[in-house]
Fold this sequence. Notes:
The chain is mainly beta. It has a single domain (about 25-385), classed as 6 Propeller (Neuraminidase), CATH 2.120.10.30. Helices cover about 0% and strands about 40% of the residues. It has strands at about 75-80, 85-90, 95-100, 120, 125-130, 135-140, 150, 155, 165-170, 175-180, 180-185, 190-195, 205-210, 215-225, 230-240, 245, 265-270, 270-275, 280-285, 290-295, 305, 310-315, 320, 330-335, 340-345, 345-350, 360, 365-370, 380-385. It is globular, with a radius of gyration of 19 Å.
Amino acid sequence: MSGTDDDAGERLDASSDSGPGEVERDAAADEGVDAGGELTDADVMLDDGGFDAAVPGDDAGTPDAGGPPDPVGDPVFLATGDGGWTAASCDGGRTWSSRASSSTSGDLSHSPWTAFGGAAIGNGALVAGFGWGYPGHVLRSTDGSRWSELPSSAFEGGTYGSTAAVAFDGREHLLYADRRGAWVSADGARFRYDTSRALPAGADQIRQLRGFAGGRLVAAVENQFSAGHARGNYLLVGRDGGRTWTEGTGFESGCASRIQIRGGDAEVRGETIVVAAERVCHSTDGGATWRGAASPSGAHVTDLFVDAEGFVAVSGSAVFRSRDGASWTRLGDVGGTVRVGAFAGGRYVAMSADGRAAFVSDDGARWTRATAPSAGATVRELVAAEIPGGCGS
């Protein structure tokens, strides 16, 4: 967009000589971790961890024809929201169990438990990141019901600070706490800091990060102050787990405008990438070139996901589908205003921004109201995947 999301943001500070900042933990949870320098800036909202939209691909990063991953276990739908709130459904979105990690009430949009960090599912682990600025919190679960906060000792070679972004790239979980590198883990339990995953100069803020199979990442970023790049929102595509990043041509800033605050998303099928917020951009060459268009609803798109047929967009109560990211048709109406949606195990699930309304569908066209988790807090993400260990077991 033109301008900045000043009400949401801190920058990803890459100029400091200090390492990743430390997050405060209970003494019993930590095992002799030295204090580190505070990270002054980091924030992001991640709207899909990538698994509900991942395109199966080989280890070389060459995706196949596309579509959601083949089922490998029981599907889990996971929602995250401010206040360290998580809600999981093991029955296709019909009923939910929820919990909150913070007892703080009121506006939690700029707090240590803000859900800007997002969530990701992969390798049998669910990882959720929370925090606007310092300190941050990372929760882990293997079933969506029982969660534990990672202690500082889980971060080798440094101490962890604020959560900027969480993603799973088909191989590893990645946590971005600054622009200089990423925390990387195969199991989501123990992380190492890898400077080879650094973001390019100019990415002062990560507004959203998505991970996809084959080591591909899609990052909506914003330049607010750095020289060498125009101010505003733009899109980076990462390969090999973020070791290389490229910026294509033709991307419209409106496709990522206020994507962190009002919602929006990026999804991948083969070499086609779709990014949507106030407008919709699509690329058919892996992000090298982009074309923009108006939102199919004429209003802000708050979420995207993929099913067996193509891309699915949520805007207000309306649901749209596109096979190519360019032409959209109305698929159905949820029956209530929703913010997030996901697909797994043949089931479509959507949820309102406050978590007090949930909806399910078998075809994306006809929806029924489900038993909602009654969050009462801002829901920022809904991800879905099949987990080998079984949902809620």
